[in-house]
Amino acid sequence: MPSPFPGMDPYLEIHWRDVHHRLITYISDALRRKLPKSLRARVEERVVMETASGIDSNPLFPDVRVVERRPDWNESASASSGIAVAEPLLIEAFRELTEGFIEIIDHGTGNRVVTVIEVLSPTNKIPGDGFDQYMKKQQELCQSDTNLVEIDLVRRGRHVVAVPRDRIPERHQTPYLVCVRRATNKGIAEVYPVPLQLRLPIIKIPLRNTDADVTLDLQALIDLCYDLGGYDDWFDYAADANPPLTGADAEWADALLRERGLRAAKPAKRKRKPRGRR
Fold first, then answer.
1. CA separation for the pair 53, 89 (Å, rounded)
2. Average pLDDT, whole number, for the chain?
């Protein structure tokens, strides 16, 4: 069964690490069929150190692991004083997370990076090592001769795409967003607003100056993630998404899910009988 949502399914965010890996792969595969002969789409990785506080603030990752094991200490170390030395509880304070992104490289010019495509994760949007790494890389790319495409399909965390939020007209400030920064026009950001109620857009991916843009159908790829990930019988649409929707988006989603039979219909309001005249 397809997702009940016409565009981005907000319930996918709670399983974003799985969705992210799939989406990166599907984007790379889709681009390979469209790129000029000398260009290649390659999946690359970076390692992020996620601290305990970062994991606690981000429920997409498992809880901090507590490892109960006896340190290999010499018990005679405390014999001289006759007081036992306390043995600490060993807790994993950080973990390494691997994040994927896509580089389009020019095979004919020594593998020069032409375009970088980032599918954002909460790790990039919540303060911590991942956030710091991402902001540094973003700044470097925007000052280089490499194009940058940022696809933000998660609502958790800060606004981090390479255009200030206050530069986007309020009516176009949507829960999801795509931002394209071309190396040939550094002062302009191409922004694709992505409302919850609409299909995800087909976006343009810039390449070399001599190449025409290639297109990327985000909705088709998210649908593929939903289908092959087996999410159709996984989600409890009667419960709130995580993080919960708010305002008009929450009202619209509630009506949609009730219409699709995924939530109980609201009880009809009983009409009040008019009081008779005394």
1. 18
2. 86
**Interval 165-181: pLDDT, tens:** 999 999 999 999 999 99
Domains belonging to the chain, first-starting first, are 10-61+93-237 (3.90.1570)
pTM above 0.85, yes or no: no
